[in-house]
Design a protein that fits this description.
single chain; mainly alpha; Rossmann fold; Helicase, Ruva Protein, domain 3; three-stranded antiparallel β-sheet; disordered N terminus
Length: 840
């Protein structure tokens, strides 16, 4: 019988256990091997990314936000808010060059919770059209992927290639991106025409990847394609926060001293003088903080070299050791000056006694209230009740022989200085003091109405005065001249009794309007340094008035014309009263010497009313010679009733007053129309000048000097016309701006007209004063220039005025000579006619 073997029971034998154990070990080894491989791969990836990122990594910020201005405080708050943003929204740091925007971006990163991660920076100007360096290409990752959950700073985003703007927009808005494709890369520069990968089929594009990093950006220009996709931090330029200049320069000086000390050298404690600080605060700093840092470093090196040179010279002479105190003066900051300020000289610094005089009570208060307030009523009384003719009335002689000509002499020297000692407003201010002492409250200025209706009122009043002067012969009528002074004084008193300060002087006074216009020709100006005012001043006493502010600020009622000296663009609304200089505790106000007429091309406001007034004053010169003007046409002024008070005399006076302005405007319109139609404007201008030459140098010119001078006037204009004939024609500035080119001619013509009174009859003032009390033949000295000398000076003035007007017109036109030949022809013709009238 077969033996049946039963199967052995399945017990866990050693071998089985061994097999089981082996099987388990093999599984563990496999998992361990995978883990090891994964760790190695991660380490390898980390090393590869670290190597990739190394050239791009940024260190911690160099410095925080330095300064105490409201702009600096706001910037700090924006940085803190961006740093604490848990959503890690993209941030654009926007501002001009030199504002250390990358440092601000670093502050955002290192001030937030992600400070322990990397910060990498990539200059967008170096990216190509594909953006492979940023996004990667093929199997190679880009910076946006390599940075991981760190922060990526894209510098100069405004220089990003246009083809990458849509991809950047998606990265910011969706936090996704695609690597550049190899196929597109192979296309080369022609692929730029695609502008983005989005034009390719979806299946041909690399997959979208999600970016884990935070994006920070800097730009100095607007990037419209990414507007709204990032939080914007606008960094204000340094010129808007001059209050921070003091803190910044102090920081840079400390850094310089620390660096030199750490290098084994020795450097004294560095600081700058008050004058140097004001100079730095006044500069615009187009290069912002970077320029300031470089300027401070350059100044320190220059001061060290100067001290070393002085020390060497001292030792050679057996004297000083060349030790430097470490204090920097304004001389070493010569580069920190505005271009326009380099042609200006602060007279208060150059001549300190002038500063003492202008800050004293003598100017102008004592002159006004201790002298003029008593003398002026006497002058008016003598005009009203004294002798009435010019040879017996000293008041009339002073009025027309001295006051009026000397006012015109003062314009190119001191601007509107006459208004500081004007007798009209002395009584207006006395009335104001009387009313306010009684508890009355003066009204604020109706500024909008004054600016709208003031110029027409001023122009109309001046036209009436000039017509009155001509028709009623005011220069030879003391009684009417006295009433003219009373009328103007009454206007000042009435306005001052109602409104505060000097509303009359700024908007309504005809003499003030003329003074303000001619003051633009002045070689001096009163200005405050804007940066010093913005950084140091908090009271504005120079503008609104206030109590004394030690150590140097004096009590002041403020500017009588409501003009802030740092905001003035021309001399029109500055009366040189120096209230701003007295009130300022910061040394900001300066009295500067400058190029004459600078206002006219450096920011003044052109005004139709002012141009109309200017041409009317030119017409007044012709009007003063009306009989000669009519005689040139072969007519008799007396027979026509133009030498008496007649309606035809009044009508003719108005016509002559407005004729020069209408002629100048008509020439400008005709010239522009001719240029637009392609007509040879140069030939037209040359013909006009030639006609003027033949007319002036004809039989009516009785003196050789007159003919020669007239020929010189015309020859210069003809030469300019001939030289400009071949130049390309370009439309110049509008007539209302270009017309200010006539201003030097108007000033010269008016002064030339009054010059015989000043140098002739004015020299007999002692004899006139004696004659007024009955001593007709008193043997008193008299000074009178020879008629030929006066004629020479008149001719010189006219030539100077014409030449200066031509050069100024060229400056204002900002165009070739050929573009404004009608104006040159007009200047020549007007000057030629003036020559014929003033130098017969």
């Amino acid at each position: 019988m077969p033996v049946t073997r039963c199967p052995e029971p399945m017990l866990p034998s050693a071998s089985a256990a061994g097999l089981g154990a082996l099987s388990d070990d093999e599984g563990s080894s496999s998992e361990s091997g995978i883990a090891v491989d994964s760790a190695e791969a991660a380490a390898k990836l980390a090393r590869r990314r670290a190597k990739l990122l190394k050239p791009y990594l940024m260190p911690s910020p160099k410095r925080g936000i330095i300064g105490t201005s409201k702009y600096a405080e706001r910037l700090r708050k924006q940085i803190v808010a961006a740093a604490r943003d848990t959503s890690r929204r993209p941030v654009m740091v926007f501002g001009e060059s030199g504002l250390e925007k990358s440092n601000i971006a670093a502050l955002v990163h290192f001030s937030g919770p992600g400070r322990s991660t990397n910060l990498a920076a990539l200059d967008c100007a170096r990216l190509d059209w594909s953006g492979a360096e940023l996004f990667g290409r093929g199997d190679k990752e880009g910076i946006v992927e390599a940075i991981g959950d760190g922060t990526l700073l894209l510098k100069n985003v405004h220089k990003l290639p246009p083809s990458l703007l849509p991809r950047l927009r998606r990265l910011l808005a969706e936090r996704t991106y695609r690597r550049a494709t190899t196929s597109l890369a192979a296309l080369g520069q022609g692929a730029v025409a695609l502008s983005s990968q989005d034009l390719a089929p979806e299946e041909a594009l690399p997959p979208l990847k999600r970016a884990a990093c935070r994006i920070l950006m800097t730009a100095s220009k607007q990037v419209p394609n990414i507007d709204g996709a990032a939080e914007v931090i606008k960094v204000p330029p340094l010129r808007l926060r001059p209050a921070d200049v003091k803190d910044l320069q102090r920081y840079y000086l400390r850094e310089l001293a620390r660096r030199q000390g750490s290098g084994g050298g020795s450097m004294p404690r560095l600081s700058i003088t008050d004058a140097a600080l004001k100079q730095l605060e006044s500069y615009n700093w187009p290069g912002n903080q970077v320029e300031l840092a470089n300027t401070v470093e350059r100044a320190v090196l220059q001061q060290q070299q100067m001290a070393a040179a002085g020390g060497a010279a001292g030792k050679a002479a057996g004297g000083g050791t060349g030790e430097w105190s470490g204090r920097l003066s304004e001389e070493v900051f010569w580069v920190a000056k505005q271009a326009k300020d380099r042609l200006r000289l602060n007279l208060l610094a150059a001549y300190p006694p002038l500063r003492s005089f202008l800050r004293s009570e003598l100017w102008p208060n004592d002159i006004n209230f201790k002298f003029t307030a008593y003398v002026y009523p006497v002058v008016v009384a003598l005009l009203l009740w004294g002798p009435q003719d010019r040879l017996h009335s000293p008041s009339l002689a002073v009025f027309w022989d001295y006051w009026w000509p000397l006012v015109f002499v003062s314009f190119p020297l001191l601007g509107r200085v006459w208004c500081a000692v004007c007798p009209f407003m002395i009584y207006g201010e006395l009335v104001q003091k009387w009313r306010t002492s009684g508890g009355a409250e003066l009204l604020k200025w109706p500024k909008e109405q004054a600016e709208a209706y003031g110029p027409p009122f001023l122009f109309s009043l001046f036209a009436a005065i000039l017509m009155w002067e001509e028709v009623w012969d005011l220069p030879n009528n003391a009684y009417l001249s006295g009433w003219l002074l009373i009328i103007i004084t009454a206007g000042a008193v009435i306005c001052s009794s109602i409104f505060e300060r000097r509303l009359w002087c700024r908007y309504l006074c005809p003499i003030g309007g003329m003074n303000g216009m001619f003051a633009k020709l002045s070689m001096t100006e009163v200005r405050a340094r804007h940066g010093v005012c913005a950084s140091e001043c908090s009271t504005y006493h120079c503008y609104k008035g206030g109590c004394a502010q030690p150590p140097v600020g004096l009590e002041s009622p403020g500017c009588p014309l409501y003009s802030h000296p740092a905001q003035l663009t021309d001399n029109r609304n500055c009366t040189n009263c120096m209230e701003c200089l007295k009130a300022c505790p910061n040394g900001s106000v300066e009295v500067r010497l400058r190029l004459p007429g600078t206002d006219l091309w450096s920011g003044h406001t052109a005004s139709v009313a002012e141009v109309s007034l200017m041409f009317m004053l030119l017409g007044a010169v012709y009007l003063h010679h009306l009989p000669q003007l009519v005689g040139q046409a072969g007519l008799d002024a007396s027979a026509l009733g133009l030498t008496a008070v007649t309606p035809q005399h009044i009508a003719t006076s108005f016509a002559v007053l407005f004729a020069p302005g209408l002629a100048a405007w008509g020439a400008d319109v005709a010239g522009r129309a001719a240029a637009a139609r392609g007509i040879d404007v140069a030939a037209m201008a040359g013909a006009a000048v030639s006609g003027a030459l033949s007319r002036i140098s004809g039989p009516q010119s009785s003196s050789d000097s007159s003919a020669a001078g007239a020929q010189a006037v015309g020859a210069a204009a003809a030469a300019a016309a001939e030289a400009a004939a071949s130049a390309p024609v370009t439309q110049p500035a509008p007539f209302v701006e270009l017309a200010y080119g006539y201003l030097p001619l108007v000033w010269a013509a008016t002064l030339a007209h009054y010059l015989p009174d000043l140098l002739g009859q004015g020299g007999h003032i002692l004899q006139i004063a004696a004659a007024s009390v009955g001593f007709e033949d008193a043997p008193l000295p008299a000074v009178e220039a020879h008629p030929s000398v006066i004629a020479f000076l008149q001719g010189t003035l006219l030539l100077f005025g014409a030449g200066t007007s031509g050069a100024l017109s060229r400056k204002l036109a900002a165009a070739p000579w050929s573009a404004f030949l009608p104006q040159l022809a007009g200047i020549s013709l007007l000057t030629a006619e003036l020559w014929a009238l003033l130098l017969p």
